[in-house]
From TrEMBL:
The chain crosses the membrane at residues 25-44. It comes from the Bacteria. Keywords: Membrane, Transmembrane, Transmembrane helix. This is Flp pilus assembly protein, pilin Flp.
Amino acid sequence: MKPCICKTRLLKSIHAEDGAVTVDWVVLTAAVVSLGMIVGLVIWNNSGSIAQMIASYIGSQEVVTTF
């Protein structure tokens, strides 16, 4: 009886290291993008109160039109 071709191909692909660097880069890129999104979210959430303070400060300033 012939061995299953699918099984041998599967075992070869599992033990092959041809795409290992590609997988590493994909995981590394996903980690960097995730970290960037988390930092962006933190900055976005905390910038609302600062924007309100700046808006109230600018709104309270008077413009002198005479010299």
